[in-house]
Specification:
alpha/beta, Nucleotidyltransferase, domain 5, 5 strands, 42% helix, globular
């Protein structure tokens, strides 16, 4: 089983995949970067978003569950239009591939992983490294993505380090078929 955590960004998307193996779960991470210009034309923006979205879907489209951080709005959120377009490009691509998608708001991620909804990026990274000491947390994009993949693994019942607050995370979880309903009688 595999879960994928996605911290979507127009400049540096964090990707983490939690993989269940016969020797326990492991986590692998990556980033996808992109550069744009404020004065870019609509055609250039579309090309950038398409290339970025396709790169993200290349990684996430093979998972059993994708967990995406909800959209952040605020003065440092960049182009809200382009961020929302990337969100829907990726979410729609996953839905078309029949990959279930969960959405975890940023404060829910921080509360579940670091224990405080207003935790800063460093506190989130430290808490994540305690859960996954072998994961190379190279940036806040990676730590956010790894936290999301971890919460997805907990939700699916994978054998990962789990605190009670990981189970209680407030998120938009997909409806999944009951595996027992698929058993042959």
């Amino acid at each position: 089983m595999k879960t994928c955590g996605l911290d979507l960004s127009l400049t540096c998307t964090g990707i983490a995949i939690c993989i269940e193996t016969s020797r326990g779960a492991k986590m692998v991470t990556d980033t996808i970067t992109s550069k744009g210009k404020r004065a870019a034309s609509m055609i250039d923006r579309h090309a950038r978003l398409t290339e970025l979205g396709n790169g993200i879907l290349h990684h996430a489209g093979v998972c059993d569950l994708a967990v995406i951080e909800g959209l952040f709005t605020g003065p440092k959120a960049g182009s809200l239009t382009d961020r929302a377009a990337l969100f829907w490009f990726v979410a729609g691509g996953l839905i078309r591939r029949e990959v279930p998608v969960a959405i975890v708001p940023p404060t829910s991620l921080k509360l579940a992983i670091a224990g405080a909804g207003n935790a800063d990026k460093a506190a989130l990274a430290v808490a994540l490294m305690r859960l996954w000491p072998d994961v190379d947390v190279t940036s806040s994009d990676v730590s956010d993505a790894a936290g999301l993949a971890h919460l997805g693994a907990v939700w699916l019942g994978m054998d990962v380090p789990t605190l009670e607050r990981h189970r209680a995370v407030k998120a938009e979880w997909p409806e999944l078929p009951d595996p027992r309903a698929m058993e042959v009688a």
